[in-house]
Amino acid sequence: MWWCYSPFTHMPYRRRSPGPDEFERFLSREEIMRMATEQSRIRGKITQLNRLSFDPATLDDLRHVAGVDISCLKYDPSRAVTAISIMTFPKLEHTSTIAAECRLTVPYKAGFLAFREIGPMKMVIDYVKNYYSDKAPQIIFVDGNGIHHHRGCGSASHLGVALDQPTIGVAKKLLVFHGSGTAPQEEYIKEHRLALKAEGSIIPVINSGGVHTMNVMTSCYNKPPIYISVGHRISLATATAMTKICCKQGNRLPEPIIAADGISRTIAYNLGQRNNPQRNVYFRRERPHVHWLGVQTPEPPLALALQTGFTGGGPNASQ
């Protein structure tokens, strides 16, 4: 810990010391331009129509849904744990969870979070498709935004296009960015806060271009609303309906996201505890339903593939 000076509050504050292997650098202007170009290319491939393996009206052939999330270690933000939780539908009973530790090689930059997290997420989902094909999810919930994004390509949309699979973005906070009329949207939501008090209430949000980008839904009484946006290969109406069905009474988020977030946070906390001799056997003893893949090397982001010289694909075990 050391003391830093804030230029905003003009007051000193304590800052956490970085971990031993913390990845500290800033993205160069060339990298940011390449990422923005990649997002614009991906945005052209996003489909906001129902391209599903089941009938969205009856949901008869829908068997499995999943949630994916990633959590960083407290003392070393360059290390993270990504997890995917698969559940049956419509009972939402947990079937299996795949988790792995990985290194994050891309620093955080607002608007480019997908390039930091999509590699590990895609890695565990590909593992499910290869070794748990009978439990492969037909819809994936992502803790993030879809087309409601600076360039119309959030984490949910980026992941959906990379996998060519239906994805839904469910965010806990409203993404505010300049140039898309989001500030008026925030005022619009505040003006209609009374309409969001009832559980299950939904209000549409339209951006400055007249596009219906997301729905704001109160999934649980007396809790903040959630922000639902299209990821890929699904309509906003179907995404909202699926999110509403997967939110159990008393929970703010869909059950698959809650399960994946809880597993990834628990494992990340356990790995972050220093001098813990039981950390290697924790998963077998406390979490027998978690398939732990160990330390994996995810595929680098597409925009940085040429820079890093990466030519292969898929996860590679490093232990």
| Major β-sheet annotation | 10 strands, mixed
Which range best describes the helical content: under 10%, 10-25%, 25-40%, 40-55%, 55-70% or over 70%?
A: 25-40%
Report how far apart the termini are.
32 Å
Rg over CA atoms, rounded to whole Å, is 20 Å
Mean pLDDT score, rounded?
Answer: 80
- Tally of alpha and pi helices: 8
Q: What is the ordering of alpha helices and beta strands?
A: EEHEEEHEHEHEEEHHHEHE
Strand arrangement, largest sheet? 8-9-10-7-6-3-4-5-11-12
Which segments are poorly predicted (pLDDT under 50) over 5 or more consecutive residues? 1-11, 13-24, 277-286, 302-319
Globally, the shape reads: globular
Number of strands: 12
Protein architecture, described:
- This protein is α+β, with helices and mostly antiparallel strands.
- The protein is built from eight helices and twelve strands.
- The strands form two sheets. A ten-stranded mixed β-sheet has the order 8-9-10-7-6-3-4-5-11-12, sandwiched between helices. The protein has a two-stranded antiparallel sheet with strand order 1-2.
- A hairpin with an 8-residue loop joins strand 9 and strand 10.
- The two termini are 32 Å apart.
- The N terminus and C terminus are likely disordered.
